[in-house]
Amino acid sequence: MNVLRPARLQAAWTLAGLVLLTVNLRAAITGVPPLISDLRDALGLSGVQVSVLTTLPVLCLGLFAALAPVAARRFGTETAITGALLLITAGIVLRIVPAAPALFGGTVLAGAGIAMGNVLVPAVVKRAFPDRIGSLTGLSMMLMASSGAVAAGLAVPLDGAGGWRLALAFWAVPSFVAALVWGPLALRGRRVPAPPEPPRATGSLLRDPLAWHVTAFMGLASLMFYVLMSWLPSVMRDAGTDAATAGLMVSVMMFIGIPLGYVVPVAAARMRDQRPLIVGLGALMAVALGGLVVAPGAGWTWVVLLGVATGSAFPLAVTLLSLRAPNPSIAARLSGMAQTFGYLGAGIGPFAVGLLRDVTGGWTVALTVLLLLVLPEVVFGLLAARPGLVRPAVSPRLVEPKDVPAARYARR
Q1: How far apart are the first and last CA of the chain?
Q2: What is the pLDDT of residues 222-244, one digit of tens each?
Q3: Are 41 and 84 in contact (CB under 8 A)?
Q4: pLDDT at 404
Q5: What CA–CA distance (Å, rounded) separates 10 from 1?
Q6: Which pTM value belongs to this model?
Q7: pLDDT for 67-91, tens place per residue?
Q8: Is the dihedral of CA 59, 64, 253, 366 positive or negative?
Q9: 124: which of 108, 144, 330, 412 lies 20 to 30 Å off by Cα?
Q10: What number is the average pLDDT over the span 171-175?
Q11: Burial of 301 (C-beta count, 10 Å sphere; 0-12/13-18/19+)
């Protein structure tokens, strides 16, 4: 019994750390857009600078995601997470300095920390809770969505209570608290080194087709979400909806995704084959986008369908990162690969769709392009959802001899 208590305490502490980590992976991003007008006036930002500020966080999620697996291998997963949370805290604090360079620099720091945290969540779940992948991935997705929605909702009230600096600085508190919780885990991880990885675990993922299928599905799911979050209000306003209702539609779309962030990973983890989920989500997305093209007047119907489709696709993609990885190390590397390429593509999406709208003078072409992208999203999703595991490529000379006892890696 005495042996079990430390293990249970360790698991409970890790679970608390996981909850606090995921709470801090959206708020520093979603709390900024409602303050854009105040930031522009206070810091004298140009239109170009505002556009860069709104695009920069998504680009950072892609640019810095690849650092997470490297940091985890070099310093340990717990230390990498602690560092990521300190980066988020430092970035948030830097943004309250009343100068444009500080605002942009802080956004980069916070974005880098969020990118690393995003990547390492599946690795923590895979290693610490291998029998609860669905429920804890779902909890993580639900907390991310909830904290993002709360941060966006509190931004204006906090601004009214103490100005834009208070509204930005508020979120440094939970990120610093999370870093304090992960600190002891990092110290323990340094004292208890991980066992050596088998050679196959260190091979390249870039030549594994399944890794690319998961990456492509995550990228397209992310692109759809960020494009709709950015442009759906404009689409509905051009269709005759008033500004307040158009803004409410985006909020409803995001809130629909909160419970689905939990339900979808739990359901996916219980299924040996997740392809039926891919087909259903693809059908919903196609109907909703097609509806926006031919009958935008029925906007609320399409918003609800889009909320279900986008609110389910990204949590499903994150769940596949754990389900398709044979061990926590590869889960972190697959997550880094998928989020690097996925978020970089997602960052380009809103700009490209906005450009199409400006060139064509309407939303028909842009929405039709999105509708066409549903097909490759479904195709890559079906390939990613097939039963199987990612297998990194490795040089034959590095493969372990056949007579190496399997127990050698049992601890993994």
Answers
A1: 24
A2: 999 888 887 888 888 888 888 77
A3: no
A4: 41
A5: 15
A6: 0.79
A7: 998 998 889 999 999 999 999 999 9
A8: positive
A9: 108
A10: 95
A11: middle
Whole-number pLDDT of residue 151 = 87
Two structure tokens written together for 232? 């759906």
**Structural domains of the chain sorted by starting position, each given as residue range(s) with its CATH number in brackets:** 8-194 (1.20.1250.20), 201-393 (1.20.1250.20)
Tokens of 83: 């560092």
Q: How confident is the model at residue 3 (pLDDT cuts 50, 70, 90)?
A: very low
Q: Tokens 């479904």 map to which residue?
A: 378
Cα–Cα distances (Å) from 373 to 142, 303, 353, 356, in that order, read: 26, 18, 12, 15
Burial class (CB in 10 A: 0-12, 13-18, 19+), 403: exposed
Residues 6+ apart with CB under 8 A from 18: 121, 124, 125, 128, 136, 140
Angle, CA 28 vertex, CA 22 and CA 31 arms, to 5°: 120
How does 379-389 read in b/e, with b if 16+ C-beta sit within 10 Å? bbbbbbbeeee
